[in-house]
Amino acid sequence: MGEAIAEWHDFFVAVVGAAAALAGLVAVAISINLHRILEYANLPGRAAEALAQPVCAMLVGGFSLMPLRSAPVLGMAIAASGLLLCIISAMSQIRAFKLMSGQPVKWWRDRMLMSLVSGPPVVIGGALIALGMPNGMYWAGVGVLLSLAMAVANTWVLLVEILR
User: Fold this and answer.
1) pLDDT for the residue numbered 96
2) Are 85 and 53 in contact (CB under 8 A)?
């Protein structure tokens, strides 16, 4: 199992760097448009999601790069990172759903699907790794990439769409 994890070294080095840069961009987007974000009741949650997504990617990448090669420990750490993202996203979505009554379903449905697509693969990947199944790294890797993509989409909203 250790060799299978080691094969992912370069991928996770790239992920950690990209996620750190994206987290910085999200923080800048939030600080630039903080007053506008606070004007809309559902946007603070979206800002939290936008920050949680690259942080999850950094955690998964960081745990995967640590020298400990115990599959159960690594798997649990990755699964916990994905679970944290799922919880933050779900709490944000529940709050947004309550605030969007009377608005078109498409407005919250698309955001909900986008938001909740990245955490579950990370959790599944972590669980598979904890069970000693090397294919869990693929699940975690896909979840990390989806997390970064969703963070970019949310950051776009916080930087550009909010000004329309």
Assistant:
1) 79
2) yes
How many separate domains does the chain show?
1
Range of the domain at 20: 2-163
Per-residue model confidence (pLDDT) at position 67: 86
- Cβ-based neighbours of 51, under 8 Å, separated by 6 or more: 23, 26, 27, 30, 151
Residue 150's closest CA among 120, 124, 105, 129?
120
What is the rounded CA–CA span in Å between residue 148 and residue 57?
7
Sites in the chain below the pLDDT cut of 50: none
Separation between Cα atoms, residue 17 and residue 73, nearest integer Å: 23
What is d(CA 27, CA 55) in angstroms, rounded to the nearest whole number? 11
pTM of the model: 0.90
- Return d(Cα 42, Cα 26) in angstroms, integer: 17
75-111 residues labelled b (16+ CB within 10 A) or e (exposed) = bbbbbbbbbbbbebbeebbeebeeebeeeeeeebeeb
